[in-house]
Amino acid sequence: MQFAEVYADEDVVLQTARSLAHELGLDSVTPAAGSVLRLLAAAGSAKAVVEIGTGAGVSGVWLLRGMRADGVLTTIDVENEHQRIARRIFAEAGFAASRTRIITGRALDVLPRLADGAYDLVFVDADATEFGACAEAALRLLRPGGVLLVNGAMAGGRISDPAARDVDTLTVRETVRAVRESEEWIPAIVPSGAGLLAAVKR
């Protein structure tokens, strides 16, 4: 696991974004998880991506670096201040302002306004309590063959502990199970960082 983190090298822009996130008290995707985001965005030649949870822009930079050169990242966060920092990070990473659509608001209020079947990838890095609703929304937003990625699928290491009955762990468990049992997804758990639930829409 440690080698995977070291293998995913981060440049000064990502290091800066990560330290700003840390100052804000935000958990960012680890370098290994970020490299998986970039890989899957590149594998799918992603042109339209939705990110739920902008943070300080760490995951956004990883995604943008995997997307097509004409791709647009729609990123949603309730914190305008975080997005102001992310906007600066995206610019420092060399992305034109036209490559990002930054929307301030609660994901569950914003997602219904986005177009059906118009997206190649949806990345969820939100409150665990919203995972299920975000996964349902992703099913509508993604084109067939589109990818859902949910960060935090290991529930902080508690996912397989039957004694862990806190709300976050129960919600993560329920989301992971629902996606696995659905006829509409082809899922896998990627054990990078906090764990990624990955699923392709049939």
Shape estimate: globular
Unreliable segments (pLDDT under 50, ≥5 consecutive)?
Answer: none
Q: How would you write the strand order of the largest sheet?
A: 3-2-1-4-5-7-6
Question: What's the rounded overall pLDDT mean?
Answer: 97
Strand content: 15-25%
How many β-strand stretches? Answer: 7
| Alpha-carbon distance between the two ends | 30 Å
Largest sheet: 7 strands, mixed
Rg, Cα atoms, Å: 16 Å
Overall structural class, as computed from helix and strand content, comes to: alpha/beta
Tally of alpha and pi helices: 8
H/E series: HHHEHEHEHEHEHEE
What share of residues is helical?
40-55%
Describe this structure as you would to a colleague.
- The protein is an alpha/beta fold and 202 residues long.
- Helices cover 41% and strands 22% of the residues.
- The chain has eight helices and seven strands.
- Strands 3-2-1-4-5-7-6 form a seven-stranded mixed sheet, sandwiched between helices.
- α2 packs antiparallel against α5 and α3 (31-43) packs parallel to α4 (58-66).
- The radius of gyration is 16 Å and the shape is globular.
- It starts with a helix and ends with a strand.
- The model has no long low-confidence stretch (mean pLDDT 97).
How is this structure best summarized?
InterPro entries: Cation-dep_OMT, SAM-dependent_MTases_sf, SAM_O-MeTrfase. This protein is an alpha/beta fold and 202 residues long.
Please render the helix and strand layout as text.
Blueprint (H helix, E strand, L loop, with lengths): L1 H6 L4 H12 L7 H13 L4 E5 L5 H9 L5 E6 L2 H13 L7 E5 L2 H4 L8 E6 L6 H11 E10 L15 H15 L3 E6 L5 E6 L1
Parallel strand pairs: 1-2, 1-4, 2-3, 4-5
Antiparallel strand pairs: 5-7, 6-7
Helix pairs in contact: 2-5, 3-4
Protein name: O-methyltransferase
Pfam families: Methyltransf_3
Organism: Paractinoplanes lichenicola
